[in-house]
Amino acid sequence: MTDTGGSDRQNRGSLSQTEQLLSIVRTLAAELHPGDRPQRISLTTLLDKELGFDSLSRVELILRIERSFNVSLPQALLAEAETPADLLRTVAAAAPATGGTARMKREAVPPQDAGETPPDLATLPEVLDWHLAKHPQRPHIYLHHEVDTAQAISYADLQRSALDVAGGLQALGLGKGDRVAVMLPTGADYLYCFFGTLLIGAIPVPIYPPVRMSQLEDHLRRHAAILRNAGTQLLITLPEAKAVTRLLQAQVETMRWIATPAELAVGSHGFTANPISAEETAFLQYTSGSTGQPKGVVLSHADLLANIRAMGKAVQASAQDIFVSWLPLYHDMGLIGAWLGSLYYAMPLVLMSPLAFLARPQRWLWAIHEYRGTLSAAPNFAYELCLNKIRDQDIAGLDLSSWRLAFNGAEPVSPRTLSGFSQRFSNYGFRSECMTPVYGLAEAAVGLAFPPLNRGPLIDRVKRDLLLTSGNALPAAPDEPNPLELVACGQPLPGYQIRIVDERGRELPERREGEVQFNGPSATSGYYR
Question: Best exposed site among 187, 212, 257, 392 by fewest CB in 10 Å?
């Protein structure tokens, strides 16, 4: 007689696992859409199109699955899973959770000389040349791909690989003023391609990459307006995008090529340097388009360096700082604030991908711990994610005492998040005065207002109804039953002026709601086209 007991037990276990996973998905979907009629959810239901799961919803989903099944899932699943069936297959093959802390292996950081700050150089390539003359082999970036692996990129490494890209661009006939879109994930290729474009005097146009390659075609269609507006001639991207070359060229008439970083490097026949002036456009930073069509903010080398210097002066940045960042390099806060600012001040940059942070928020904090990071920045949601999604066992032994400035910006700052994060992580060496709400906008490069050092958050309590009905932000009495709490985001950076105006451009008095106008050394010359 054949023994089928093992097969039956396996089927029952598989069925139980399926129902357990679908129950998690159903529960989260109901929480995200309270009051909606419950959906019929199966293994083939689309997580994004049918359930509306965005990136943060996926973070919560993966977290619940890991804890329910006691497994450790790969971070790529956060982006790649399209259906519950994808999740189930990965759970079945996943290794049991080890109870570890998602720490990263630290690379040795050479001692830094605090006095090594570039003079008033005119362009970003000149800044790199200065570092090459001073300390070519010093690590500039520690790039973390996964928890236990890091790639140290020196100033010489950056120049060498950027020159390969620059030569490949010139071999295609590209040069000064040509627009080159860079649609790559966080990684060495992004750094080399962005800087290689700068070296020939062409204009990089950062474009965020698709979360899932299966959505590549739709993703490029959505970004065709930006590519058309910029008059993009080349798109540097992943090999998978080559399949949609004809589609993209049909929608963007100026688009002549789609190339991968490897193709550009192989096609290089050497690089011919051409002079670049401070007033030439360094890159186009497109706005989010949340209030209309995305606009290309024109930023010159002079604009970028002026803003970097102003921010550096405000925070007393030096080569002895260590910046830790997971911010995307297509966004000004990550591109200028984290990478190019670190480049200018010769401070090491510890860089990981946004996906690595979203999959394991504690990795960000462990990176600060391991590298003794002093500066780091994130939108408010990231501090909220750390506050609510990290368990105590995930951060046992964590030490954040080296963190001197925790910038919070790029979206509205919540008073509750500020106090909650500071209170919880004070047990791990975080000081409340390190929390630094800031304000900026692409039209100023990135930064516009920073608070005084070590002041800590300043919360203003105003009369809620009066502000909402008349635009007057009058202070609330101590016993006000329902005040509105507003976070102060600092004062203008050195050399900048800010005023609040009405719809006719007339300056308003203190505590009146209106539009922001500013002036300063990095104010954009305008929008592209």
Answer: 392
Q: Do both 63 and 166 map to the same domain? A: no
The residues near 302 (Cβ < 8 Å, ≥ 6 apart) are 122, 278, 279, 521, 522
Q: Residue 85: which CATH number?
A: 1.10.1200.10
Q: Please give the model's pTM, rounded to 2 decimal places.
A: 0.90
Interatomic CA distance for residues 453 and 343, integer angstroms: 22
> Does residue 65 sit in the same domain as residue 165?
no
- 427-469 pLDDT, tens digit each: 999 999 999 999 999 999 999 999 999 999 999 999 999 999 9
Rounded distance between C-alpha atoms, residue 421 and residue 15, angstroms: 41
Helix (H, G, I), strand (E, B) or coil at 247: helix
Same domain, 30 and 161: no
Sheet of strand 203-206, all strands in order from the earlier edge strand to the far edge? 203-206, 179-182, 234-236, 257-259
| 283: amino acid identity, one letter | F
User: Terminus-to-terminus CA distance in the chain, angstroms?
Assistant: 80
Q: Which residue in 212, 250, 208, 257 sits closest to 232, CA to CA?
A: 257
Q: What is the pLDDT of residues 237-283, one digit of tens each?
A: 998 888 887 788 888 999 999 999 999 999 888 889 989 999 999 99
Phi, psi of 47 (to 5 degrees): -65, -40
